User: Fold these one by one.
Assistant:
Number 1:
Amino acid sequence: MMTPDALKTLIRVADDEGIRFISDEIYHGLDYAVPVETAARLSENAVVINSFSKYFCMTGWRIGWMVVPQALVRPIDRLHGNLAISVPTLSQIAAEAAFEGRAELDAIKHGYEDNRKILIEGLPKAGLSKFLPVDGAFYLYADVSEFSNDSFDFAKRLLQEAHVAATPGCRFRSHRRPAFCALQLRRLDQQI
Amino acid sequence: MMLDPARKLMTPSARSDVPPFMVMDVMAAAARIEAAGGKVIHMEVGQPAVGAPSPAIAAVQAVLGKSALGYTETLGIPSLRARIARHYAETYRVPVSADRVIVTTGSSAGFILAFLAMFEPGDRVAIANPGYPPYRHILTALGASRCCSRPTRRTALPSPARVCAPRTEGSRLPACWSQVRPIRPAP
């Protein structure tokens, strides 16, 4: 996850250089280690994208939101009207009420925190000691390059031989580039 | 040029030739093992363990069968847009006007709308690596070229020269974790 200072610098550079900036904040609310900052505070030019799928646990309702510069509101209104007319009404009604469920949602977040601890402590014992900072969301990106330079192949063998389903990070057969596998923090308590 | 009408009807567009969302393939492989009686520890899908919070369910139950549930305003129900704007005031202490909030069909639709509203075909876009693969695939389908950045620790900062210099995939670009950084070519 980016620190607030890193995000601030990046956005300043983007604004100065005429680079458009999109901030994917879908995992906000599921942070465990560093303070979270929104690009909405840092620049009115930034586009923020967020969702009710993760913290709000509404994956299948297919509902999210954007915060956009004023100049993009009408263009997106025109695009969206043509592409989709509107967002499912039932999901919008549910989403508005979901803000009243913060206590339940925070309890679920604490479960992810427990699973995160299990993985951070357990993976090195299983031989996976290098991973990117597990600051937020419910994934852990582990460097598997000690075992394979192809994360697809590694994920396939992990599933076939150990019956652990993980997602390959990227498919570069390069010795310079670490191969990553994404492991997620859900339901670990029941499984490990 | 002569076109073979039958062939034209059956040939998908070049832009549709994007990779599948790989996690779904892993899920299918795991399901095959389970169908054969095996036990699988699932760590592949990024989805919460439980469903929507109870106030959301109650709100839906209150309207089902009582409302026609017609279309809404394209940008979203005004009270929901206002509630999201209030979320910024409450959570981040930052004022966001409700008329800058747009409700979308998940973040997936948000990305499509953002890319369509912000980029032209051929624009260069930098994205984090490792990152969410559909960023790349949506951009491919929309005709924007992309460049990847390397994984870094959270403290790494990019410099403007490194961000803006022409790069090819695999060359050194600074990463920004879970951010998408669109780059426009210098005029």
Number 2:
Amino acid sequence: MTRLGMVLDLDRCIGCWACAVACKMENSVGEGLWWQRVQTIGGPAIDTSSGVFPQVHKHYRPRNCFHCAEPPCLPVCPTEAIVKRADGIVEIVQDLCIGCGKCQPACPYDAIEMNEVAPVLPHGLEGGHGASEAPPPRRAGVVEKCSFCTHRVDQGLEPACVSACPTQVITFGDLDDPTTQVSARKARPDAFRMGEETGADPSVWFLPASTGAKQRRSG
Amino acid sequence: MDRDPGGVELASGLSETVINTVCAHNCGGRARLACTVRDGVLVRVAPAPAPDAAYTGACVRCLTLPQWVYSKDRISQPMRRVGDRGSGRFEPISWDEALDEIAGRFASILRDHGAPGLAFTRTSGSSQLGNYSRLAALLGGGGTANFYGGVDMAVHMGLNNTFGFKGMFGQHANEWTDRIRSKLIVVWGHNPAETAMTSMKFLLDARDAGSRLVVIDPRYSATAMHANWWLAPRPGTDLPLALGLLHVLIHEGLIDRAFALAHSGAPLLVRLDTGRYLRAADVSIDGSSATFTVWDETVQSAVADGEAVQPALEGRFEIAGIPVATAFTLLAEMVGDYPPDRVADLTGLARDDIVDLARTYATDKPALIGFGYGVDRYRHGELVTRVAATMALLTGNVGRAGAGVGVQSHGQGFYEAQLGPGPPLPAWARTESIPNIEVGKRPSVVRALFCQGDWLNQRMPDMNTALAYLKTLDFVVTADHFWQTTANWSDLVLPASTFVEATSPVRDAVVVGNSVLLRQKVIDPVGESRPDVDIERDLAERMGLGEWFAATPEDTVRMQVDGASGPAFANVTYERLVEAGGGLRLDVPTTPHVQYADLKFPTRSGRGEFYVEALVDVGEALPVFRPDHEALPSHPLASRFPLVLVQTHVRQRAHSTFFNTGWTLDIWPEPILEMNPDDAAARGLETGDLAEAYNGRGHVVARVVRNPDFPPGMCNVSEGWKQHQYVSGNVQELTNAEINPAHTLLWGHANIPFFDTRVEVKRAGETRP
């Protein structure tokens, strides 16, 4: 079996959002919607730490759809608009989506975005931007989410976020193939997934931000 | 004529092509970009394979390029002021009208005031730096004013003072790919995780391979977050910290005496009567007035440098009645004033941490000290890099793989290789440089100003004073992409194209990342905009100076590439470069480039000179610490204005470039005033409250974010927001324009101490105490 997935090394993430912006550009994701976001694990506001200076802590965690092996979003869809491909990618079939929104709360990872309005694309780029093979801009009243860039994967390319990352945080490939880099990193004893208890069996693993956790501070 | 870009036809019937170019912004990144153009529209930007694969990579800024290029806020046509200056009332005019008017006004100013009546100034916010410099040099028979500099220069001054002059922004640090060979990497006043993001992977690769990454920064930056050891000195105390480290190195005997004797200026004799180096001719030693001298222990006398059997590192001597000492002795005595206990008091760091860092630097070799421009923004930024360079010279941490001192982000491959010259200029062509920090403070006959980009917002401290000066001028022209402060105060505004727009197949060429890369045309100019190079040539033709310009930018680039000499260019011709898609690796070694590998320094003595005799008159022959600047808690303003205000540089903008791209504004929507939670609480401020930061120079109003990444006593508004994005005021109203005479003495201009800025903060709307 093939199971496409990712391992993100949070010890190398600088919180720059290049992954998220590359995704948005590649897939013509409308204003206010993000298929990928970069979470600050620290204080309440973006880019802030928790703690008291200098004993402060923060790191970043990019978040996209985890393309779960048992996707909780899939069975709740009344129109079978959510499908799982043979390679493990969980896709939304736009033409089948009726915008009922049931999938959104079903996702434990907050990965599904609703087009409340017709997507607003940047001035001069209203016809869509990014890859010509990517899905055209979505209509109002349907949901959308990270597709692992199926249009790229089908050409043998990595998702846009992977190649855009300037610090090589993200490894992508077949988790079931023991020869891949992604399965080697997933096998690290400190590799973890978010919300194991959900039973969704996500296909996105993380390596912890261990340097920051262990660092010496003088101030 | 445009080359056939070799596009492919899509199923939709649209044509699509990918054109490679190089980013042009002043982050220094120079990423090679693959630009997808569909039916004439730039729809996608991604990292393009670099000719040297190590340098493939782009950052989030350039990913937003399509939004920048097609922004609805672009200035679409030339505009002439119709209301009062600053009223924002303009009417559209044709390019011919605009250029004719500029040429006419310039001609009359040249007639009435001579060449010095005209000034040019440039920013990096609109296309590449350097445009209009040719025109400026030619106008009026030469000698127009050039408002320039004052930013990012101090750290380079210090390196150039010590290692030798390699051009103001010359590279002193080893190449990025050398990071992995460092055992210790000290990143100092530098936040590449936000400012030079494409350099960050080399630091992380080194750390992950076992190098120890140390970050010195008063705040917990996105780089500090990744360090093995983060040290947070009080803002503006980098110099005493550096002196404390040097103290430990010298007083604990951690120096490499043989290296220091052979390659640094340590053994050179200094006259105690004049403060100058003792030259052979001063005391009838064989040699000239250019020959440096050392004390030879073997013969117990001074000899010409290079002649000693056993040069002395330390000692005071009298030679022909002249009292002298070795430079090392003077240095060691000076740093005697900075024992770790005192430095702990000055910096807020623990004594033992200072000692430990110095010992680590001396023992975990090779060690790199990589600076950024954080230390540059205080009054004595150049002295910090001088001390660091001295540390390297005394411990043998220079000229070796993994070692060195320099601006960390400036090591993007070998770029000492130079392109050839453009079209010839007459001998009389020149400009008279007026440092930005002196504009309006010294008498000049300037009556008209041509600005490339938003000079007031981006280049000037103490903005209200700068604006008052601008208002006194007779005629102001701005070429920019967007309506900004400087455009608003101009009489004529020209729409400049971005660096991806061109009328010629190629705009210019750059040497970076061990390669030569063409900045190729990606799309036609948007709206009625024109590339700066075209505007410059059009103006020159109107003023009878067209003969000094090539017919097209491509012709200039062909001259520069084919005229480049040196072995690096052995296999490069313009035609080959075009055939290769606009990028070729230079014929330079594939091993990481090491600066000063031959341990020859381009100083007068050929040694790394930590004693700078040219600064004797300002008391800085040695890099002494003077507590005379605004950021320090001992400054008289500290009681009224208790907070030091810095301006961090952020991920989404290169200075102000990309200030209005919607994708990143969705993430980081507005200017924020970041403060330590205790400072905010003391003023009754919560995250989200509007607050005013003010001092005697001006004010800014922004939303507060409580952020414990900042120490008490320090606050931040990131650099590069534009006037309309503030609630009111502008962070540049607050900044310090004090001139450091030591800079002026040696370099002709002073760096701007933007971070030597104190403020008080209060809730917006409340009256000031």
